[in-house]
Design a protein that fits this description.
The structure is a homodimer of 339-residue chains. Chain A is α/β, with parallel strands linked by helices and 339 residues long. Chain A contains 13 helices and 13 strands.
Amino acid sequence: MQASPVTQHLGIDVHTHFVPENFPACPHAGAAAVWPSMAPAQQCCHRHVMISGKVYRTVTDQCWSAPRRIEDMAAMRIGRQVLSPMPELLSYWLDAADARVLLRDLNEQLAAVVASAPERFSGLGAVPLQDVDMAVEELHRFAGLGLAGVEIGSNVNGEPIGAPKFDPFFQAAAKLGLAVFVHAVRPSGMERLVGPASLEQALGFPGEVGLAAASVITGNLMARYPALKLAFSHGGGSLALLLPRLEHAWHAFPALHGAVHESPTAQARRLFYDTLVYDAPTLRHLAQVFGTGQLMLGTDYPFAIQENDPIGRLDQAGFDADAARAMLHETAARFIGLA
Amino acid sequence: MQASPVTQHLGIDVHTHFVPENFPACPHAGAAAVWPSMAPAQQCCHRHVMISGKVYRTVTDQCWSAPRRIEDMAAMRIGRQVLSPMPELLSYWLDAADARVLLRDLNEQLAAVVASAPERFSGLGAVPLQDVDMAVEELHRFAGLGLAGVEIGSNVNGEPIGAPKFDPFFQAAAKLGLAVFVHAVRPSGMERLVGPASLEQALGFPGEVGLAAASVITGNLMARYPALKLAFSHGGGSLALLLPRLEHAWHAFPALHGAVHESPTAQARRLFYDTLVYDAPTLRHLAQVFGTGQLMLGTDYPFAIQENDPIGRLDQAGFDADAARAMLHETAARFIGLA
């Protein structure tokens, strides 16, 4: 497929994933058990991401190949992809110094793909947030790499991102003008699922993202760092349904009203969300709850669960031209700091 | 307040709670640590529910007094309340035989309130679902007590209600024509909350109920017991936002498609939900997702988080007359088996 029509494609997809073609060597024997590696797969252009001696996921060269991605973008009518690491690579469960080795390499490979076509790609790196001071240090390398921001997990080894201990990280991201994209990882509620492993993604992720966003709200994070650009994947997960109840409880329970300094709904309308909800009525509902100016296209490209026609979904939802333009690219451009 | 206008008030509130005026004596010393008891409170008409030596909740005589409830119903324009136990009394964490002692007493006191004004109250009892066979036995006592159905928790000591082990319970409920009302209890995700204890109710409950409903769907429960009348509290919690993603994943992942025998959305539209979402746009969205014929008024009366004006909320949502009538009383009448 030729790239000729792509200049008409203004869509910015803020939720696409990157896996490096190769992982660096394991730095020492102690980390070997959980260090990721690549193994060849039988199918052409596929590789197995191996973690803990097992195939974690079989991925295609779409994960690391700029030309393959650009070809797919034309078919999806996407002008620009924002690349972020496959969340399992965030490596919060490694020793922080080991994770730094892995993530620096990852960030460099991700940045190289972006640099190969800067008019088509933006990048979000990763930092070892299990050590907040080290994570802040690493953020200072991002400008040099040409990264627009950072992807973080919804929790860090079980601690929700709204916990006060992560303040220095968010303070630094705000100060550096780096976008922060929150992705579900190792979700809570796994013990409540009945069915195959893919339910982790299907059912675990939305609740996990919803609680992460709620933790930011009940933790008053945006009041402390009003300049912070903070986005939540999967349409904010369950947040849109949590919010009216949280708002009601905020009025009903004095202790909650005392702890949360501003209306949860008002706070939620200052956060960003992707449109990855697979359903036009749900998208319309999110636009009503969060505001049309806070939503940005997202697809989960190139994984099995991806939304194949994000712009078709927007069309289906029937937004007016201003709202559609905001979701298509304007809000994303603001989020990632495009001129 | 006189009851004169109440015959015009057709609203059926399916989500109201009951606490007995007194608990039975602890059956043996071994159960004493977690056996609930009542302690006097300073305020008139209040009592402390004591569990594990602490005040679990301070409650008013609205919890057990029929005249007090009828007075409040007039103000809320509710013609009939469906009473179910305060969920912490479900007692899944007690030895089953001990729980049976507590729950039989509770069911009898609840049934007595219903019997005192059967034109104004219906009742949902409780059973020791930590022992499925015993729970089935107990269900057979419900007709004699005049109970319309049973309240169950969203999980039983961590196991989601969609797990196959609960099949004999649902089979019996379906066969006996008993309504089953699923309420959040001891929610997952507690470790993700940042803020005061009331966040358990505000944020923990919706995700918990959503996963419980999803477990019923991915477990194919309704395919096995199509006659079952199964309702979820809090508008189904997060389910309406989980559903489009689950539906998409069901098409995207062969293992999930193989495990779940019918479209998750189609399954969800055979379940019942209360309207307890505190927000007219959310209510409209639920009606679109689940169908207007599956929603029933619910308020959480008489607890602090209650919806004070459920019928006003319906009016605000602007449903047509047929849909409003269904939500106001018709669907609830079908659920609890009123003629």
